[in-house]
Amino acid sequence: MKINDYTSDQIDAAVSAAENIANDWAQSSRETRARLLRGLADVLQARRDKLVCVGDDETSLGSVRLNSELDRTIFQLRGFAEHVEDGNAFAVSDDPAIAGAPPLGRPHLTRVRVPLGPVAMFSASNFPIAFSVLGGDTASALAAGCPVVVKAHPGHPQLSREVFELTKAVLTQQGLPEGLIGMVEGAGIEVGVGLVRHPGIAAVAFTGSFKGGTALWSHANSRPRPIPFYGELGSTNPVVALPSALTGNAEELARTLAASMEFGCGQICTSPGLVVLFESADADRFESALRDALQSAKTHTMLTPSMKHNFDAGIARLVATPGVQTVLAGESTNDDHASPRPVIARTSAQNFISEHALHEEVFGPACLLVRVQSIDEIVEVLNAVGGSLTVTLWGAEVDSPDVRRITRCATQIAGRVLFGGVPTGVAVTASQQHGGPWPASTQPFSTSVGYAAMDRFLRPVALQNPPAWLIERVGQPC
Amino acid sequence: MKINDYTSDQIDAAVSAAENIANDWAQSSRETRARLLRGLADVLQARRDKLVCVGDDETSLGSVRLNSELDRTIFQLRGFAEHVEDGNAFAVSDDPAIAGAPPLGRPHLTRVRVPLGPVAMFSASNFPIAFSVLGGDTASALAAGCPVVVKAHPGHPQLSREVFELTKAVLTQQGLPEGLIGMVEGAGIEVGVGLVRHPGIAAVAFTGSFKGGTALWSHANSRPRPIPFYGELGSTNPVVALPSALTGNAEELARTLAASMEFGCGQICTSPGLVVLFESADADRFESALRDALQSAKTHTMLTPSMKHNFDAGIARLVATPGVQTVLAGESTNDDHASPRPVIARTSAQNFISEHALHEEVFGPACLLVRVQSIDEIVEVLNAVGGSLTVTLWGAEVDSPDVRRITRCATQIAGRVLFGGVPTGVAVTASQQHGGPWPASTQPFSTSVGYAAMDRFLRPVALQNPPAWLIERVGQPC
Asked: Which of A45, A223, A433 is most worth mutating to test chain B (most B CB atoms within 10 A of its CB)?
């Protein structure tokens, strides 16, 4: 499928159309927004078979996974519709006037939140439905009152176009202007740069590679007027196995982890890339069971040839790093179109800490086992990771000073801390936090999954001594 | 007063001391934090006369202003103590588990907020008490559970040291480690750069010039691990006079505005630097009255010689811009130690829009009157400003399509929109929003005044299936 590289005139047309509708959409009613979100969910449901078929052709993710991704996307669009209707996202705080001079006296102040304006939304390759044209970023921006210009991902152009055509039909059917949701295409970074630098764009939502993300982030920051850039750039998602967790349970946990690693062929932002465990016979058992489980794993081709290329390069760098032992070697076919084989490697805590190359994410089915000798070393390893979407703790169910220390360390470097289980599978709910310190996120206070994702596009504004006509409108979209 | 340029070893010592206490302070009780904040307020109150005397010697701001600034600072420290005690800042959201697979099923998720770690706090020159050693940034960071390393402002070194000595005494008296609040000094930017780039610093709070602020912001972004940089960099604070406001009221409003311009010799982040008004006889009356009021204004020397230098340069640039008429000329003494004279200039909307030099803030007692012919031109002028801490609307009390349009445009470019009054004087309260789109703030979603300022230092974390021991602690500082 040929990718159209949009010209700057075409980018300008899409952004200008979004700008023209921005004021109206910012003032649209909750009902109008909820109806659009539900209409989009309904049309995805109605065209499910076609979309899964087109998506599988382009991504090799398979119909089971793509159907479940579609379920998630539909659930999410409907969830944002409900969230707009219940109005919590537009919650207001109000401080009545107090007579007298400051600091004791004060004017009447009402704090509202206003939509930013057109959002540039960069689709991800690895969730061609849930983080693409009508994914969570688009849903949350529309719900917040912002038009969206989608940068389609070149990994699934046909699916993007199918979904975009359905989107346009819903807009027309509901009597909404086409400019509310636009789309541009581009194979390289130029179209994305043009979008991020366009003066009409008010914020950027990005999920993708560290390299592409930091480049676009720099462009957002070097505009004459920098704008918020919400980027999710990569994560190693450490799993920490405390000794009690592995006792009598090493094999089962290894199989659970193997399934998490295999999910989506490891092309998942929350894929577990690092396991931290104490040097012990249990650790040996865990390692053997993990190797056995992954040796026979079925994998599928990666999302794009360049991802396979980068995976092979990442593995080559990993196993060539001093102090790293290979536990399960992949097959270095150097064929960018072949299915990758899972890779497991092992190193010591001290080696991990000193070798910065080991802190980088290898996107795909790869995992590095870090053997530690002490709680201190666990803390040092997590601090060396520095920023991650998740940290998973196994064996932290019972309170102790060590458990508290590891838990606190985990909350310092991650946006989500799991007690048991595996990091893949991110619930769409109000309390979700999908984001974390750099490089997990460029804006670690924000989440790109869950209903708090709307907060990214609603800026607080204090109204001082608002007149009666405005007070009447407060709490409604404005 | 000689400024000590701290060495990198001294900076490292201050940050390391803050790092060492960070975990303990993050887990300190609400009572401990509130006691510290109140202790700091009490000691400022007890040493009021001395501090005002030292401050006036260094800043020329006068005892009336410095006493009221001290009132504000004491009120603010006590306000944050109450805010910590009532616990709203640590509010938690909780989604119970739902059985079944996602998207309908989900694990138990609890969203808490955790303190970031050591905060580098850059004092401002223009509020030597309220935005300095024990100002709002320090108070909000301590309240959030973060240690602070203050970069003292070279404009008031003696006052900074006096306040810092009082701070150390309070820490000792309360049995808290010295490292909780550190201070470094430096005359140039190097010490600040060293602080921002130190790996132990987790966030930066800055109030100051556009030039210094953007330089430090770039350093925060180019660290191996970028960190949140909360910078307030400058603002022109447009005042928009709709025709009805001036009718029969031009002279009174002009005198009110003159007082706001004079306040602190215009060295205030919310000083009104721009007035937008319709071409009319009322506008002429307003202009004359403003000129008359400011002609005889008493001014005092500026905070530092370099500020006077920059003010003179800014005025020279302003009046030399094509299409700008001088209404009230200052006195171009080119003496960096002389008191400045207020300056008023006038230009047309179209000239303002096309001359980018006119969009820059002139820090000091200067105001540019922009004459417009239509509501469209008001919108264009505000959009040319782009980002401001405040926009003040005069004559927006009665609803109309034009009033709604201007109000919406104001909320798009400012963090606070005032209906009547003047922008100087910023209430410390929960609904305050002191921040706005670039260049008003590098993080337009955050506020540096009011209790929401704590949010800058508390990052959301989702706890997935938290064990019983952790659930017991949720909602407490962690």
From this structure: A433
Query: What per-residue confidence (pLDDT) applies to B431?
Result: 96
What secondary structure letter does DSSP report for A3?
Answer: P
- State the smallest CA–CA distance between residue A391 and chain B in angstroms: 10
Q: Is residue B175 left, alpha or beta, with left meaning phi > 0 and alpha meaning psi from -120 to 50?
A: left
SS3 for B414? strand
CA-CA distance, A119 to A469, in Å (whole number)?
29
What is residue A242's predicted lDDT score, i.e. its pLDDT?
Answer: 96
Please state the φ and ψ torsions of residue B158, each to the nearest 5 degrees.
-70, -40
Is the reported ipTM for this assembly greater than 0.90? yes
Q: Do residues A274 and A238 lie in contact, with contact meaning Cβ atoms separated by under 8 Å?
A: yes
- Could you give the CA distance from residue A278 to residue A144 in angstroms, rounded to a whole number? 46
Instruction: Return the bridge partners of A391, or none.
Output: A417
- State the Rg of chain A over Cα: 24
In three-state secondary structure terms, A22 is helix
Q: Can you name the residues that pair with B460 across neighbouring β-strands?
A: B113
Cα–Cα distance, B226 to B99 (Å, whole number)? 39
Pairing of strands B343-348, B325-328: antiparallel
Contact by Cβ (8 Å): B428, B83: no
pLDDT at B245 over 80: yes
Smallest Cβ–Cβ distance between A114 and the set B72, B399, B411 belongs to B411
Q: What is the pLDDT of residue B4?
A: 85
Look up B269 and say whether it is catalytic.
yes
Question: Which domains, from first to last, does chain B contain?
Answer: 8-233+441-473 (3.40.605.10), 238-419 (3.40.309.10)
Residue B161: count of CB within 10 angstroms of its CB: 17
Distance CA B84, CA B203 (A): 20
Q: Among this protein's residues, is A269 annotated catalytic?
A: yes
Q: What is the pTM of this model?
A: 0.96
Q: Which of A93, A415, A416 sits opposite B431 (nearest CB)?
A: A93
As beta bridge partners, residue B150 has B121, B183
Q: Report yes or no: A180 and A21 within 8 Å, Cβ to Cβ.
A: yes
